[in-house]
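Agenda item 2: magnesium ion complex prediction
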Amino acid sequence: MGYAQLVIGPAGSGKSTYCSSLYQHCETTRRTIHIVNLDPAAENFDYPVAMDIRELISLDDVMEELGLGPNGGLMYCMEHLEENLDDWLTEELENYLDDDYLVFDCPGQIELFSHVPVLKNFVEHLRRKNFNVCVVYLLDSQFITDVTKFISGCMASLSAMVQLELPHVNILSKMDLVTNKKEVENYLNPEPQLLLAELNQRMAPQFQKLNKSLIEVLVERHALCYVLFNDQYSLSFCSIQYILSQIDNCIQYGEDADVKVKDFDQDEED
Ligand SMILES: Nc1nc2c(ncn2[C@@H]2O[C@H](COP(=O)(O)OP(=O)(O)OP(=O)(O)O)[C@@H](O)[C@H]2O)c(=O)[nH]1
Ligand SMILES: [Mg+2]
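Presented output:
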C-alpha cells in the first residue's frame, strides 16, 4: 500500500510553499516523502522534485507549436498526462516501493477540480496502483475577510470533494497575513446560523432561500471545516506537524504505530 496527498487549490493559494514546508518538516523528523511536480508551468522549486510532468510534456512547446495561450496550453498538457497514465505514470511509479509516500503539487487552474476529469482519472489510476489518496485543498486566508468570498471558496472546495470522492482536508493558508483575529474565530468553526445571517445581510433579499440551501449543503458535507497553516513562523495550531497528522489519519498512514501504543497499554495492564 502506498500513500499520497493530492495538493490542490486556487492559483497562488500556497500549494508549492506547503509542499516545501512539508518536505522540510519530514527531513527534520527523518521521514521520507517524495514531492511530485504536476504543474507544467512551474519553474522554481524549493523542494527536490521526485517526478516531474515537464519530463513528459513542455508547456512552452505546446504553446509554441499549437499556438495556445498559457491556460489553454496547461489544459492541453494535463489532458496529455491523462492519456499517458498507463505508460508514463505507471513507469514512474515503479520507482517507488509499496509503502512510499508521494505528495503531488498540482497546478492552480480551478477547472482541474471543477469539471475537467483529468484529476479524477489521475487519482483513480493511483488507487488502482494501491495508493491511499487524500485531497489537501488550500484556500488563501484572504477568503475569510468577507463572508461571500468565504462561501465561494468553500463551494469550490466542495466541488473538488464531490468530483474526486476522496478523503479531503481543507487548509486555510497564509494565516500570518490575518490581522483581525476575530475573523479567524468567525470562520474557523463557524456557527452556521451566524454565517447565514451575515450572508443574508450582504445579499439581496431574493437570495435568502438559496443562501440557506448553500449553508445547509456546506454543513452537511463538512465543507466549512479548515485546519490553519502559516508558513512564516511557528504557531502550534498552524503547525505542519498537526496538519500532517490529520492527513495521515485520513489515509491510515502509520497504523503500525497505533498498534504499538496498544501493546504498550496491554503491558502496563499486565
Ligand atoms: N505571507 C505568506 N505568504 C505565503 C504563504 N504561503 C505562500 N505564500 C506566498 O504566496 C505566493 C504563492 O505561493 P505558492 O506556494 O507559489 O502558491 P501556489 O498555490 O503553488 O501557486 P500556483 O502553483 O501558481 O497556483 C508566494 O509568493 C508565496 O511566498 C504563507 O503562509 N504566508
Ligand atoms: Mg505552485
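Discussion summary: Residues 258-264 have pLDDT under 50 and may be disordered.
Owner for follow-up: CH.
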